[in-house]
Specification:
The protein has about 650 residues and is mainly α. The protein is built from 28 helices and four strands. It has a two-stranded antiparallel ribbon. It has a two-stranded antiparallel sheet with strand order 3-4. The chain is globular, with a radius of gyration of 26 Å.
């Protein structure tokens, strides 16, 4: 096959014609039930979930009240991407989302890559939400006096890693009671779980339960899913408005000072968690074939969902950081926490019930999205034909829905929440980047049929270069040390917890003796906690650097330097180099500003994710490419037409 065949494209006319011929090709059409209101509700169902009930706490703890700017920035980035999605959805109103759009803009190979990335987005996203739902559900059971064993409510990786970290900290003198609640739970889960040899049976069974329940609902039909989603959205919006109405009377404006305690870096630290709160609006585009008027309703549904949710997120963030000091919000259930702290326990109970409903609604939308991506890829011959089978009675992609249930349920038993959150974010951001790039590629092509919605055109020729220059000026004028350290790859000191948990018994004893010998008020206490002894110096950077320098252990346990440090900066260097290229491209080609800003902002958020997420994502793409060249390329309908 010629190299050019990798980038063979589908035309909009061919895609629309294929949908019309699905019946004669042996496929049943999907049922059209959705209106703009239903799509907006699906968007709210997908967005208002883990963000408000979980991740907003950690983000607020890092950024303080200024975290509202992170929500606004993320909403703008998603809005820019939503414009691109809406334009494509209006142009190509079929299931498939970014996969189908990339097939039109870039060709088959890129379409496969983005489709494969979307499979990861929805599968991993579902795993993440299922784990979060399990945490809230088991917490709700605990408050009702029902206690499940720890080993049936925690994933294997969290239990294993938590046990190892807890053991290391207790080895350094920390008592079990002084460990974090999460670490205590992991230790108990690992030590009390049934085991066969060295293997411990630790699995998140409530997560498995909710996945089975939601998959069954999605299998039964779009109308049933729509009704359930709408009901859950009404419940959780009512609870959120109640939280705001009650919480506003307990706001102390002194808690808003300082507004940005950790500066810009503190605000941006929560970018992954906050972005995860917004993903899901793109799932709306997978329901295009089930909309009554997709070209009109899809753009409206996306935009209204983002606007409504952003307003809610900003208000909730202000209320939370006003009710208690931002430093206290690093908890898994921030809404319930603040009301419990203020002795409003009845509100904590209502919030816990609402969170369980909210997480279930997010899972519902995500679980609808993935089978429809697979169905579209199967229609094009890139996946086996069975994935495009539509149930004759329920009018849903039945086989793909069942497979989705298995793909989500099994990892949910064993995977760690942090890993899956970041993996989901990078897959989603990659999809957003390609959709925005697709609009830019097609903007001047005259032979592309246009839908009713088109992204407003603003020439980026001078705007983007000006923004780049302004960004460089800010970096060197107001953030010079951090910028210089980044460029020169300046050696960084590990945090106290990272140092202590990396030590073996002999190294722990040496550090213990050294710290005890330093004049410190901590020496007056009876039980010495090695982590606390070292952590106390972190308030003063110079003092901490001096103490760490004297620790009698290898420097590689104290400092990160060379390539081991540089590798974490590779994603940001990729972003910066790409930004320069895009600036030149925008100046030469008069690119449209809105999709270009969407591309840049989403790529920036990808750069904020760790290099390990990029590595895992690359491995996932390599697996996908192996499948493409082994099966999909030769079975592609475009390939069969050419031959």
């Amino acid at each position: 096959m010629a190299f050019s065949s990798l980038f063979r494209k589908k035309t909009v006319e061919d895609i629309l014609r294929q949908v019309e011929k699905n019946e004669t090709d042996g496929h049943n059409t999907l049922g059209r039930y959705l209106t703009a209101r239903d799509l907006t509700a699906f968007g709210i169902a997908a967005i208002v979930g883990a963000g408000i009930f979980s991740t907003i706490g950690k983000a607020s703890s890092d950024g303080g009240p200024a975290v509202i700017f992170l929500f606004i920035f993320t909403a703008l980035a998603c809005s820019f991407a939503a414009f691109a999605y809406a334009e494509f959805a209006s142009m190509v109103p079929v299931s498939g989302s970014a996969y189908t759009y990339s097939y039109v803009a870039f060709g088959e190979l890129i379409a496969w890559i983005i489709g494969w990335a979307l499979i990861m987005e929805y599968a991993i996203g579902n795993v993440t939400v299922a784990i979060s739902w399990s945490d809230y559900f088991t917490g709700l059971l605990e408050s009702g006096g029902i206690h499940l064993p720890q080993w049936v409510q925690m994933d294997y990786l969290s239990a294993s890693n938590g046990f190892n970290d807890a053991t290391a900290l207790m080895q350094g003198g920390k008592s079990f009671e002084n460990l974090s609640s999460g670490m205590q739970a992991a230790y108990v889960a690992w030590t009390t779980s049934p085991s066969i040899g060295s293997f411990h049976f630790v699995a998140d069974l409530p997560a498995l339960f909710i996945i089975i329940l939601i998959t069954t609902l999605v299998y039964r039909g779009m109308k049933e899913s729509r009704n359930a989603s709408n009901m859950m959205v009404i419940v959780k919006l009512s609870i959120i408005l109640l939280v705001i109405a009650v919480g506003v009377f307990y706001v102390d404006t002194e808690n808003w000072t300082p507004f940005a305690p950790n500066g810009v870096s503190g605000v941006l630290k929560g970018v992954s968690a906050v972005f995860f709160a917004y993903i899901g609006f793109d799932a709306i585009s997978t329901t295009a074939e089930e909309c009554k008027n997709p070209q009109r309703d899809l753009p409206r549904g996306m935009m209204w969902a983002i606007i409504i949710c952003t307003i809610l997120y900003v208000i909730i963030a202000l209320v939370l950081t006003g009710m208690v000091n931002y430093s206290e919000l690093n908890v898994g259930d921030p809404l319930a926490f603040v009301f419990h702290k203020l002795d409003l326990k009845w509100m904590s109970g209502i919030i816990a019930v609402s969170a369980v409903i909210a997480m279930a609604s997010v899972l519902l939308v995500f679980q609808m999205g993935q089978p429809r991506i697979w169905m579209s890829m199967s229609r094009d011959g890139l996946l086996p034909k069975r994935f495009s089978k539509v149930h004759p009675k329920f009018k849903t992609p039945s086989y793909a829905t069942i497979v989705t249930g298995f793909v989500v349920a099994i990892p949910a038993l064993f995977l760690n929440l942090t890993i899956v959150t970041d993996l989901c974010s990078i897959g989603t951001l990659f999809a957003f980047v390609l959709v925005c790039a697709g609009v830019l590629v097609l903007q001047d092509k005259p032979n592309i049929p246009r839908g009713k919605f088109k992204t407003p055109y603003v020439n980026s020729k001078y705007v983007v270069p000006f923004m780049l220059i302004a960004g460089l000026y800010y970096a060197f004028a107001y953030n010079n040390k951090a910028t210089t350290d980044f460029i020169t790859n300046e050696t960084q000191i590990f945090k106290a917890t990272d140092i202590i948990t990396s030590l073996n018994k002999e190294e722990t004893k040496k550090v213990y003796d050294y710290l005890v010998g330093i004049e410190t008020k901590k020496n007056t206490i009876e039980v010495l906690d090695l982590e606390n002894l070292l952590s106390q110096y972190q308030q003063d950077d110079a003092k901490y650097a001096s103490v760490v320098a004297g620790l009698p252990i290898d420097n590689k346990l104290k400092y990160e330097s060379g390539f081991s440090l540089f590798k974490h900066k590779i994603p940001m260097w990729i972003f910066l180099i790409t930004l320069v290229v895009l600036t030149f491209w925008s100046f030469r080609k008069n690119l449209s500003l809105i999709p270009l800003l969407g591309l840049v902002s989403c790529l920036y958020m990808m750069a904020e994710l760790s290099v390990w997420n990029w590595i895992y994502f690359t491995i996932w793409l390599l697996i996908g490419l192996t499948i493409y060249f082994g099966f999909s390329r030769k079975n592609s309908k475009l390939n069969l037409m050419e031959s």
